[in-house]
Amino acid sequence: MPPVKLLIIDDEEDYASALVERLNLRRFDAAAVYNAKDALAAVETHRPGVILLDLFMPGMEAKDMIKTLKDAIPDVEIIIVSGHADPALDIIKSAFDYIIKPIEINDLIEKVNMAVSKQKGAV
Amino acid sequence: MTNCSQQDHLAFIGKILSLYTHEQKNHLAIINEQAGFLGDMIEFSETLSALPEAGQLLSIIKSIDAQIKKSSDMAKSLNSFGHRMDTALCSFSVNDCVKETLALLHRFTAQKRITIEGGYAPDITHVTGSPSTLQLLLFRAVMAVAEENAPIHIKTFNADNSIIIGITSGSPVDFMEDSDYFKPMRAITINGREINIIIPA
Predict the structure, then answer these.
(1) A6-37 pLDDT, tens per residue?
(2) Closest partner residue to B33 among A18, A57, A84, by Cβ?
């Protein structure tokens, strides 16, 4: 089975690049971009199954970004990853799930696997 | 006359706390992933195609060090911010008060891609008053001029037996604060462009 393709969209480069390495060691095919503009190009080239999206990035409205990403890949699942600890935010309803930084990698992988299962119609 | 209450002051403190904790969570996330990656290199050493080079490891450790320093500086600013409310009145440095407030607003300004350009007159004397109330007034003034992608210029200077904090963003602004809550400080707009917070020396 091919590895699950993940795209991390987060302006914290040191965080995102380390997370990419950690996920790839765990047999995912992860890539990262650090701004909204590069995200749109990466979605086309990387064709991720799951996107880990930072909720607050400079120059990006998360609501608009989620719509754009969903337009580009309709069945992509989006997990919001943020330091903003308010799960009551409306925007979260438009994503598959929400996880608060700092994350425990096994918790993240569990959510990613659930997102993949949903894509396959198992959830 | 404008109106400001303790409720507004509490809301300001809440805003600062939420910005601070958000920023700290980001710092911790970076440290967490980089330390985790170091651990992974040991845990997955048998499956790695090549062992990590010393330079790569050192780079990660330096990045963790830098992040810890940033977090520590932020914590120092918040600690100082909290202690400014220990007494109703005290002697304080206006320049330090301004710099601390702006440091604590970093998450907000970064999100809006706002750069802060500060010019602080070195001869500003200490004043006696409520530094926390000045920080609230400064916060309201910064919010009044804040625009996505636009720099904010902040300067301090002496004029007419007062210390002035001048705030501009290049765009027209209409801001005034003359509420009893801020007395003897107040804020006015000069020429529709620059907010002046006036602090009697």
Answers:
(1) 999 999 999 999 999 999 999 999 999 998 88
(2) A18
Pairwise CA distance, residues B95 & B165, whole Å: 9
DSSP string, A66-103: HHHHHHHSTT-EEEEEES---TT-GGGGGSSEEEESSP
Domains of chain A: 5-119 (3.40.50.2300)
Query: pLDDT digit string (tens) for B113-144?
Result: 899 999 999 999 899 999 999 999 999 999 99
Mean pLDDT of chain A: 90
Fold that domain B90-200 belongs to in CATH? Heat Shock Protein 90 (3.30.565)
Q: Where are the domains of chain B?
A: 6-83, 90-200
Residue from A12, A15, A28 whose CB has the most chain B CBs within 10 Å, to mutate:
A15
